[in-house]
Specification:
globular, 71 residues
Length: 71
Amino acid sequence: MLGEDHPETLTSASRLAADLRALGEHQQARTLDEDTLTRRRRILGEDHPDTLTSAHNLTADLRALGEPDQT
């Protein structure tokens, strides 16, 4: 109903990625966090708090996957 790029949809995607991360599904969380970050940058801008949260979450995914150099 709200659409793929609605802020509430993006919040739901971010929360799902957090749940995946908590379950140890780091690659799936990474994929979802990358997509969410891309969309939040486009919709909300680089400096929006939600965009920054997505960047932080992606960093956590990359660290969990042993790829901290990509942060």
